[in-house]
């Protein structure tokens, strides 16, 4: 019976780490695809939750930063490149893509080092919208799911801009093709 419990724990930890690595990989796939498109289209307004590809990517980045600070249980840290600068269409889209890929990689590295106790630890979240105490793994899962949701919106915005060659970024595709 103890062998099953140990295997279950490893499966739990592996799943959380896989989600974080998948998030990094999917954000990179998306950026690698979008970098082949005309830069001026990254700021074209299309009705969606966020009105352009740039704004949607930066929303994902801002939200990942918020959740990372909660996962780590510390105040948000200032980043080297000001987020407002990234919203400015004069800022090269490559910087925007690099910033989200770098941040996603940092998140994956941090999450990879959590053991079961750290993943199950109850952490406090205080925001303008709600307050909660939840296990750390739930915050991680929410953050990864949020990014997936908005990556889908970016694909839809791209379709509206005439992009028909979006990459496959499903979690199962990641598991089969990348983690394999």
From TrEMBL:
Listed InterPro entries: DinB, DinB/YfiT-like
Pfam families assigned to the protein according to its UniProt record, in alphabetical order: DinB
UniProt KW keywords: Metal-binding
Keyword Metal-binding: yes
Family named by the database record: Belongs to the DinB family.
Organism: Marivirga lumbricoides
Keyword Metal-binding: yes
Protein name: Diguanylate cyclase
Transmembrane segments annotated in the record for this chain: none
